[in-house]
Amino acid sequence: MIYPFWDVPFSYGILMAVIAVLHVFVSHFAIGGGLFLVVTEHRARRAGDTATLEFLQKLSKMFALVSLVFGALTGVGIWFIIGLLNPTATEALIHNFVWGWAIEWTFFVVEITAAIIYYYGWQRLSARDHLIVGWIYFIAAWLSLFIINGIVAFMLTPGQWLVTGNFWDGFFNPTYWSQLVLRTGICVMLAGLYALLVAARYEASDFKARTVRYSVRWGLIGLAVVAVSLAWYWRTIPAEITGKALQVMPASIKAFHVNSWLLLALAGALAVSWLLARRLPVVLAVVLLALGLAWFGAFEQFRESVRKPFVVTGYIYGNGVPVAKAKAYQQAGLLTQIAYTTGDDGADLFRHSCRSCHTLTGSRPLRPAFDGTDRAFIAAIVRGAHLLKGNMPPFPGTAAEADKIAGYLYERIDHTPIRDGTRAYEVRCGKCHVVGAASDKSKTFTGLSAEDLSGMLDAADSLGEGMPAYTGDAEERAALISYLQQLGKQAKP
Amino acid sequence: MNLPDYEFLSAPLWLITVLHILTLTLHFVAMNFLVGGVIMVLYAATRKRWDDPTLKKFGKMFPAAMAATVTLGVAPLLFVQMVYHRQIYSAAIVSGWFWLGIIGVAIAVYYALYRSSLRSEKTGTVSRAALLLALAGLVYISLTYSSIFSLAERPDQMRQLYAQDPTGLVWNPAASDYVLRWLHMILGAVTVGGFFIGMLGRDDPAVFALGKRFFLGGMILAALTGLAYTISLRPYLPALMRSPAIWGLAVGVVLSAGALHFFFKRNFCAAGTMLFVSLLTMVHARHTVRVLKLTGQFDPHSWRVAPQWSVFALFLVCFVVMLAVVVYMLRLVARAK
């Protein structure tokens, strides 16, 4: 915890997502678009097809502006922001992969130079030279994917690197190749979708029909590559990660499912565009592009979320605590490790242990999770964070520090007592025992009397390691007990 | 299981330092072309020279110059992060919003430069306004960098500022640390911009005169602010005087004067080379000041060195290929003309 914690009043996930998603869209599009331009230019030049050449020029204008400016700067932006949000992970990545990034930079220089020359060169360069520059552009752009793909994949599946610490083991990690093919497919698909959008703006004509069908073909080829490599990708993620996700991370799995449905919808919409080729309306092209981007967003969300509780699987937790140091922090205390303090221990501890994933009232809010409870309960939950649903990192501090966080949170919650049984269960038990899902205990309640259940609550802290003592008042207890009985009745034996 | 340790340098410190200084100098060349150029074109516009063909040509190069500035800026940022990230990220976090703002502003500057280069309307009002906007953006970016990088040289102050406000809305209050430093850099940019204008406009006496005026004036003012900044480093001055950087600086000053001489003689090759080398010495001095200011708080030699030579070799190969391909493409362009 050698770094200060940037305390902004909203979710880091969202801040990161906005810049990262923008960048990822634009950069994949820049690669696929490069291929589309140069391949199509080849064909058009050979056929002496001036209409298509004009179309390509139009395409390349937007393309140069958007991908050069937006792609390059949002790429730098990702760097800026990961340094702000998770400096420890950034530091670890830089130390290990700096030469990878340096290599990517050489491709980047070539890519930018080629893009500018290609864009300004439509009239000035000879056909042959223009094509050469186009190919150089595409190759350099794809090579930079070749590099960055290794580092992105590393974060989810560091593989043998965790044992050897060797650059190449980390780079060519278990998901490297499947993700490379997948992302290449995405590039091609997005290029087709974008070309479709430009083509849709033409008046109905033979040219339009031809161009739309041609672009649809790109979209479909990309999509086919994506569909196949997505299945491959899933298999290359170690079973420990996917297994755990299937068990306790419904959100990640949902993202993956949404993903597959969007892919199907996209295929359908592409087929419709093929049929409507001559008079493809702009709206449909926009819908297609939106579907493609939504799919891509869902994929990235899946990839990012399935990694939890880590930023680098098995190496650094989401809150920036290196796995190798967590034990030491738990023994010696986290406060001694925090270099930048504000004078409020509870707040500082909360920032460094929980705040990177939670807010108080915004996204993944903790206030509603604790409203109506007490300090002892909150402290127990903090200590047992790794047991909760959602696959969280262990609390990296001492029991006394957990209590300080509890004090900080307790001051900020609503103190109206809980009177509703469902809510009592949600707050007191549902954090670890999700009805109908992970660690469901409903069956244990079947046939138990109110006294039995009350006795169970009295002994709550001895039922499982990390399970909190029951500290609700008498009325809340009564409501909870009747809800538990109801659960016991509903449970299938 | 023993997890790999990440606290190491993947190349010897000297190598990283050399790469950092070299790429930062290249970044400064592009940045100077851009910032100096924008200032001069705007100045010329107030003198009713907006429609001058050379200046027009110059204006059309700004978007590409911005692309070059950004691209060449990535490498030094990468290399400096290898060694000094603990200081730099911390300073960036303390001023988080200003740091992040650089990205948004840079995108706006890019589009403003592009819009201005189109010159699609007769009066030029919109183009001029866009250029002015771009200049404001460039001032923001450079000032923010100066302020955050000087903050990074003062860990104690960072701690204090963070304790007062952890929300990233802190602007470095120690203006004396960076205002002169920043001003020196901007004036240096005007100098180099003058060089480029003079070179591009060598056949047009009026444009060459404009370049000359800015080259000379910029250099005098840059020298004065540079001197003032050096004096303002008082507590570190004795150590600086004993470091090799001072010899470098001395050579740099001589070379700058030499560049002026050759520029007046229209030997742009010699003048440009001297200018570049003198810029290199300034960047080296800047680096030395950072090391001196951090003395006692952080020693860059304290990193364990565990070189990744195979990857580094690949980088070198790619670097050479990069140069070759860029030169090849530029020759294609030249041939087309």
List keywords for this structure.
heterodimer; A: 493 residues; 2 domains; 1% strand; B: 337 residues; 2 strands; 80% helix; globular
Low-confidence residue ranges of chain B? none
User: What overall form of chain B do the CA principal axes indicate?
Assistant: globular
Number of helices of chain A: 20
Order of strands, widest sheet of chain A: 1-2
Intertermini distance of chain B: 63 Å
Number of helices of chain B: 12
Major protein interface: A-B, 74 and 69 residues
Low-confidence stretches of chain A: none
Percent strand of chain A equals under 5%
In short:
The complex is a heterodimer of chains A (493) and B (337). Chain A is mainly alpha-helical and 493 residues long. Chain A has helices at 12-47, 50-85, 87-124, 127-156, 161-164, 167-171, 176-200, 206-236, 239-248, 250-275, 282-305, 323-332, 345-355, 367-370, 375-383, 399-410, 421-428, 442-445, 450-458, 474-490, and strands spanning 310-312, 316-317.
Which SSEs are present, and which pair or pack?
The complex is a heterodimer of chains A (493) and B (337).
Chain A: H1 12-47, H2 50-85, H3 87-124, H4 127-156, H5 161-164, H6 167-171, H7 176-200, H8 206-236, H9 239-248, H10 250-275, H11 282-305, E1 310-312, E2 316-317, H12 323-332, H13 345-355, H14 367-370, H15 375-383, H16 399-410, H17 421-428, H18 442-445, H19 450-458, H20 474-490
Antiparallel strand pairs in A: 1-2
Chain B: E1 8-9, H1 13-46, H2 53-60, H3 62-94, H4 96-118, H5 125-151, H6 155-164, H7 175-200, H8 205-232, H9 237-242, H10 244-264, H11 268-294, E2 304-305, H12 309-336
Parallel strand pairs in B: 1-2
Overview of the molecule:
The complex is a heterodimer of chains A (493) and B (337). Chain A folds into 2 domains: 12-317; 323-490, no CATH class. Chain A has 20 helices and 2 strands. Chain A has helices at 12-47, 50-85, 87-124, 127-156, 161-164, 167-171, 176-200, 206-236, 239-248, 250-275, 282-305, 323-332, 345-355, 367-370, 375-383, 399-410, 421-428, 442-445, 450-458, 474-490, and strands at residues 310-312, 316-317. A two-stranded antiparallel sheet of chain A has the order 1-2. In chain A, strand 1 and strand 2 form a beta hairpin. Chain A is elongated and about 90 Å long. Chain A starts with 11 loop residues before the first helix and ends with a helix. Chain B has helices at 13-46, 53-60, 62-94, 96-118, 125-151, 155-164, 175-200, 205-232, 237-242, 244-264, 268-294, 309-336; strands at 8-9, 304-305. In chain B, strands 1-2 form a two-stranded parallel ribbon. At the A-B interface, helix 2, helix 3, helix 4 and helix 5 of A face strand 1, helix 3, helix 4, helix 6 and helix 12 of B.
